[in-house]
Amino acid sequence: MKRNGETKRRRNVAEEAEQGGEDPAMWENLDRNFRQVQSVLDRNRSLIQQVNDNHQSKMADNMSKNVALIQELNGNISKVVSMYSDINTKFSSAFHGGNNGHEGGGGGAGTRAN
């Protein structure tokens, strides 16, 4: 797995942020948020594989299980959209003089910090 590389990368990002006068807590928070998103995306990958396996089996019981799996997948997609929206708002707020992204304000979809 990439865990050692991820830990080293996170440490390097925090160290670089400190040296550059940036807020390392903001970058750590951003990293944590992206890891949460990745966790949901990994679950979605697993759900999609289960749906495909059930569909290929052509067994009625497995096909009926797909209803719940697809409902969970749909909910997870909505969750990921919401999580990315929150990340965007926090990141944009932090770069526009906010308080390290802990409050909303600005940062609708497609905005970019200059």
Automatic annotation (TrEMBL):
The keyword Nucleus applies. Residues 98-114 have a biased composition (Gly residues). One of its GO terms (biological process) is entrainment of circadian clock. Keywords: Biological rhythms, Nucleus. It is found in: Nucleus. GO terms for cellular component: nucleus. It comes from the Eukaryota. The keyword Nucleus applies. It holds the Pfam family Elf4. Residues 1-28, 94-114 are annotated as: Disordered. Residues 22-102 form the Protein EARLY FLOWERING domain. Belongs to the EARLY FLOWERING 4 family. This is Protein EARLY FLOWERING 4 domain-containing protein.
